[in-house]
């Protein structure tokens, strides 16, 4: 990182952007701040070296290396150094879609993040700072791309409020997901899925809820519908009733109603609408 304080802030911002960077910087000697009214933008602060104390919502947290905090706009907070040197990197951001993007990522609350080594945030921030040094006001779109990529990585690798990271959860369920990709058409029970993973059915349900926000059974149904869509388009000669059986639905009416509930149209309508796009006219 830099051996000096660096801060870039946009005087004018593209308020119409889904995401925009308001400021980005590195501070080798972080200052003490007391913001009783918070900051007007989303605020990410991460420790590079040393320790600092961060207080918000009535709780005190020690921000050591590998820890960071994401604050919502206007969240009252206080932070200060706990030693001679507390080095930090930070980014503040907003945008018309910032709130909805963070909500979709289940990151809408102010939260502490730990185990950030895999994010390589310092490298990403240094790239952003160098971009701003070279292009200044013309780097806005590129910085929005950096920012979106950062949020995705934070979602994937960051351990939020002591909860397991998404990458950790993916690794835990990967074996059963890969097994379902092969055996989705079989008559599969929750207990059988749990047995394949050597866990209880209750724990398996919790894993799927945390990882995919759906139950294992709903995940299986979604997988079957996805496979049905592939068959409907790739093999138009196969009747819909046969497609249902091929993907694990023994009841045609249930298959049609489930498909329509998820896709908004019946399997036949789906084939009629999108199957034509795959056809090639030979003259």
From TrEMBL:
PROSITE patterns: HTH_ARAC_FAMILY_1 (PS00041), HTH_ARAC_FAMILY_2 (PS01124). It comes from Gracilibacillus salitolerans. Keywords: DNA-binding, Transcription, Transcription regulation. One of its GO terms (molecular function) is sequence-specific DNA binding. This is Helix-turn-helix domain-containing protein. It holds the Pfam family HTH_18. Residues 174-273 form the HTH araC/xylS-type domain. Gene3D superfamilies: Homeodomain-like, Regulatory protein AraC. The keyword Cell division does not apply. Transmembrane segments: none annotated. InterPro entries: AraC-bd (IPR003313), Homeodomain-like_sf (IPR009057), HTH-like (IPR037923), HTH_AraC (IPR018060), HTH_AraC-typ_CS (IPR018062), Tscrpt_reg_AraC-type_HTH (IPR020449).
């Amino acid at each position: 990182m830099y051996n000096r304080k660096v801060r870039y802030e946009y005087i004018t911002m593209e308020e119409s952007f889904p995401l925009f960077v308001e400021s980005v910087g590195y501070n080798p000697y972080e200052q003490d701040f007391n913001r009783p009214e918070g900051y007007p933008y989303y605020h990410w602060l991460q420790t590079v070296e040393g320790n600092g104390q961060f207080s918000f919502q009535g709780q005190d947290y020690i921000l050591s290396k590998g820890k960071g905090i994401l604050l919502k706009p206007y969240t009252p907070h206080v932070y200060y150094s706990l030693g001679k040197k507390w080095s930090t990197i930070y980014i503040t951001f907003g945008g018309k879609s910032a709130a909805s993007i963070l909500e979709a990522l289940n990151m809408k609350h102010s939260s502490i993040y730990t185990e950030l080594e895999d994010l390589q945030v310092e490298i990403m921030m240094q790239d952003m700072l160098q971009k701003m040094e070279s292009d200044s006001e013309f780097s806005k779109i590129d910085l929005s791309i950096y920012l979106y990529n950062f949020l995705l990585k934070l979602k994937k690798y960051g351990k939020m409020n002591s909860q397991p990271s998404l990458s950790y959860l993916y690794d835990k369920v990967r074996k059963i997901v890969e097994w379902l990709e092969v055996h989705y058409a079989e008559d599969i029970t929750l207990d059988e899925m749990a047995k394949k993973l050597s866990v209880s059915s209750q724990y398996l349900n919790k894993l799927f809820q945390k990882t995919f926000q759906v139950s294992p059974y709903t995940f299986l149904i979604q997988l079957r519908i996805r496979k049905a869509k592939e068959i409907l388009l790739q093999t138009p000669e196969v009747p819909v009733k046969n497609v249902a059986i091929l993907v694990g639905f023994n009841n045609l009416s249930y298959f049609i109603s489930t498909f329509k509930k998820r896709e908004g149209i019946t399997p036949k309508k789906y084939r009629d609408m999108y199957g034509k796009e795959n056809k090639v006219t030979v003259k």
